[in-house]
């Protein structure tokens, strides 16, 4: 079974996209990510009628991130190839679609939001979390080197010190800590989350489209100018990340996570 992306129109000018993959804790698999990239690109068109997009999750959770657990049991070389392929293309395409979207996007986080799921939420303009959930970035618990593009998004939102804490500890945080850090824009009671986010989306949808789209374009250009790397440094960072897919530790970290046991790190 693969995940699916549900779509509805809960208010005038508002489109809600819902990540539905209940058997895998809202994990992001290839079909789901492809569907998300396509939907956001379609809704970004000026004639789509969308004035605000809400991205949320079904089954009381947002997303547990990449569906790497589904690759366990494969030979290590095949595991590495498919893990890198999942993260390199469909996830990047979904993130880029959200960041390029001229329609304001709001992530409504009804439950656990981890790893790639948290970065997906971070690619949205605003984030509102249910007040009981956990948010986290566990690459250090899995043996994965996170991409520099993803780390840049966290640096832009929560700064150097908090990004270090989030990634080096790998421990989840509660939504009130996330609010204090600026990782989310607000919290809400779980029963009220969707209503509060829809009220926010409706207010945005009622604003002048030219102003909203223009502001997003300016912000995007400013952030891009601050985040550029020279070509040699970017190649070095890409190779560092690619090398992590070839390690014994990544295979061990994902296997340990799926098997709910402590990993045995080998440092290679």
Major β-sheet strand ordering: 1-2-3-4-6-8
* Class by SSE composition: alpha/beta
What low-confidence regions span 5 or more consecutive residues with pLDDT below 50? none
Query: Would you identify the CATH H-level superfamily?
Result: 2-enoyl-CoA Hydratase, Chain A, domain 1
Give average pLDDT, whole number.
89
Question: Number of helix segments?
Answer: 10
Percent helix range: 40-55%
Order of helices and strands: EEHEHEEHEEHHHEHHHH
- The level 1 CATH classification is Alpha Beta
Rounded to the nearest angstrom, the radius of gyration is 18 Å
Task: Provide the β-strand percentage band.
Answer: 5-15%
Any idea what the shape is? globular
Features of this protein?
268 residues; alpha/beta; 2-enoyl-CoA Hydratase, Chain A, domain 1; six-stranded mixed sheet; two-stranded parallel sheet; globular
